[in-house]
Batch of 2 targets.
Target 1
Amino acid sequence: MATRSVNGAFDTFVDRLTPTAAQRTAGAIHRASIRNALESRLNVSTFYETGSFSHGTGVRGYSDIDALVSLKDSKPTSSYTALNWVKDALEERFPSTPVQIRRPAVVVRFAGGYETWEVIPAFMTSRGGKDQYVYDIPAPAAGSSWIDSAPKEHLAYVNECNRHAKTGAAKDLARLIKAWKYYRNVPISSFYLEMRCAQHVANIDTYIHVYDVCLVLEKLARHQLAAMTDPRGATGYVSACSSDANRTDTLSKLDRAATRARNALDAYKEERFQDCFYYLDKLFDGRFPSRSY
């Protein structure tokens, strides 16, 4: 029976978390039909994919395909109006497919949810710096309000940070921290985690999975999920949670996660590798690869 090293197990885990080629291909199948459905009912300016799946930080089985549809019409007072415009267009084109509003998007679940699209209505603004595209999109919390979004700026930031310490470091770290979020049902923004992981990697010289998973979780706990200033200066602040209740729940789970990650790192440094695997498995809800295989 062979044994894995800790970092070898992390590499195996990251491979397992990465969406398969079949899942990526499935996403392409409905791209054109979704765009056509929107263009048949709405005055569309641009339509493109955003979010974890297109950023290369998605988690297999959990990350949906996000798309932004920029509309030429005047922005309505209520963001629910725009969400219903998109919902009506998609329901007309896909009458047998579940379509529902889940702020800030309209969710379309193909094949029983195997392939899920989240379509976000957006309206171009005059905010942002030179060559920055800043949109108004529905706020994630309940209500009719709008928030800023600059998806192309944020993708550029993640890509820049990803090249900083080690190829794939920012994206690998984001995928790992998102896996904790999904496996432990933590009500925190995936976008916030992605930005925090990219920011962390931008400020280190060497990336090692077991160290940096611990360090970023401890940093999140130490800062108490403080809102993050947009590193590209396009949208103001990036919030961690959509409500106070979600923030309280997240902080409780984050403290536990940071403790487990620290226990794993201490065991790793002391060469107590079986203990290290034990705490990593606890951190990721029993999904971390076993030491023996």
Target 2
Amino acid sequence: MKYAKIKQQDAQAFLKTHKNNIDFNYKIKKDKNYVYFPLKVELNDVVIVQMEGEKYRNEDHKRIGSFDFLGDSVVVNESPEGDRYIIDYLLTRYKLKNIFKKTHKVDGSYRVRGLKRIYGSSNIVEYKENGIRMRFDITRVFFSPRLAHERERVAKLVKPNEHVLVLFAGVGPFSLLIGKTCPTCVVASIELNPEAVKYFKQNIKLNKLKNVSIIEGDVKEKIHMFNQWADRIIMPLPKDAEYFLKDVESVVKRGTIIHFYTFCSRKNSFNEARNKILKNFSRKIKILNIKKVKEYSPSVDQIVVDFEVVE
């Protein structure tokens, strides 16, 4: 499996910055000069080496499974051992304010994951990613820390003075990072969930950004406000983004770059992603990049396709 090769003096900083990208189901390895971190996703800004992964034999860890850190809160999978077992296991290893347990998958028009707080006193999470601060109620909005590196990748592609449109914007992770990374850009965003919009507006103020805005509403209804406006459009809704491609096509101009996210079967993921675009987008395009973002399930991957409207 893939490991990040980090100098020992930089290991603690890497752990703090990338803890949501590290696969804690496997042991972290060391030698005289380096620490090797097992990765959930591929990182572009570090040295990657292939090593044989060694899973923990600790039965406690197996019973808990994987978990995602959000600042001093954590989201865990449901365990047959019960809530008390989860709480005791985590609190003996990490300093946490809140622990949330997944109760069901992302569902509904607002794409909210079912979560139950089993430890702590608040559903409000404070989270920092790539220099951006965010605050939101994790039980009422959708947010995934596992896309931190992907958001950073896209932000680095944005050029000065671009007009960027972020669809399905959530509490603002893509928009805020792009707005901060590129101060001369104008970043517009659309989000359906009123709770997410509320926290998005708070996060704009929290990060003191003047070039980022949010509109509440359905993308199909609001996107026509941006006819021929966007130099770049981001579509981070992997379950349903393909059903909005025709709406996006109706407002793009020649040269617009689109970042399209989708779920595909692992056996033929790249071709499946291309076909979804070709089926729903009739204008001539040029595919700039296609890559796996992360594993979604044992047989399904999340894929991103970056493509440009040529004509």
